[in-house]
Amino acid sequence: MFTKTFCVSTLLTALAAAAPAPQVAGYPDADASFPATQPVGPAPTSFGPDSQIPAIHTVAPPAPPRVSSDVTGATSHGPFSGSPTTTGAEKASTTLAQMIPPLPPNPTHTYYNQNGKPQQPAPIPYTPFGGLGTNGTEPRYMVNSDFDYESLALGLYQEWIELDLFNNGLAVFSEEDFLEAGLTAEDRAYIAYMAIQETGHATLLTNMLGHTAPVQCTYNYPFRTVREFIDFNQKLTRWGESGVWGFLNHLDSREAAQMLSQSIATEARQQISFRQMLGVPAMPEWFETGIPQSWAWTYLAPYISECPANQTRLIWQNFPALLIENQPNPNRVSPNDTKPWETVGRRVADPSNSTIPPEESCVNVNATGYSCGPAISRNRSEPLSFPGRQVDLYWELPGQAVGPNNSYVTSTSAGAPKFVAWVSQLNLTYTPLTVTGEHTGFTYQPAGEVYEGDPAVNNTMFVALTDSDVFLTPFNLSMINPHVVALGLYQAG
Known about the structure:
Residues 1-26 form the signal peptide. The protein is built from 7 helices and 12 strands. The chain has 493 residues and is α+β, with helices and mostly antiparallel strands.
């Protein structure tokens, strides 16, 4: 037995040495025949003046102003300590129904191309028939309905906290603190640039909303270390991005949707970057998730402490919190050793505790498959979670004061919880809930794939307690809201 193993291992080693790299299954004849090779030699050690190339002096026209300049002074943070002057979400003058009933497919949506050729006359050369906003009408980059207004106002609340959050972490943690977490001055500059990006995003949304657009508030953050700051950032940008994907294609203003998609694509890059800084797989999923506006507002509101008295309020619902008692800790060599309540607080997106004993931490480990130090990509020999893992749950009662000035109240119209809904990528998956006590229970992480080879439950993703397992898809996911008992985040991977 040992002899056979040795011979096979030797043969494989010889083949690996002789074959060209890289080797990819399905490409047996992909030998590299390029004549160029990467030069090898000493790197430059001295740097002279810039090379002289032809150029002219150019002057840029005045730039459009930003609604918020770069931060130069102190900002206040911490919990709200006063009394709210109003409570509850914004309401319309009349509400027509308690829920939207499911309907059959749109009878006009019947197009199917059977021969791969245009089916209708082309309006102009090189342009097929169809599309929205393609008839030459001058674009109007403003919201065009209450749905548009409330959706973009929510997006602006998100942009404002990101602007403050990124700057706050740089202000409260020193360069030495970042170095201890494996992050350099260049990483700090990168985060500072992300904050500058947020000034542009906030300006864009403010301009499309008009003079009643929400303004920046003060915030109450949960982190105590650089690692926890980065963890919170990757969670906050996760729901910020997904919250926009959820409503983007429902906007009445296609012009606003166009502009918003070009800003949220940047936020997707930010989320990946923070995952790289945290040392977890940067993008283990194939598709990004879209969630309803009330979900994004539920995640965001607990971290806003106070807003100006005349601040524009939002119509969206705040659901009760669903907390993961054994939330996988990305700071551990063995996430399976995560202890109960190993987060820094009891808010849904609070980061995992990074101050675990050094011998249990993966931050400074120098071993492939076990390190979680900052990197372009990391593979974990022991994943953060896995199908079949028991997930222990605790959910709050409705009626809790949350959000700016404690002026919003959590609520639910659902019945008793029976299922856990897992919302990730393109999939909505339900698992049975086993209730073990008053507002406590457990379920098991589901198996299943979006397509073959793509596990559905991956990355930072969304979970909800529901009273039924209603069938829904990404485009009509908001119809789950009347069935939601509580909302949470799960650190899968």
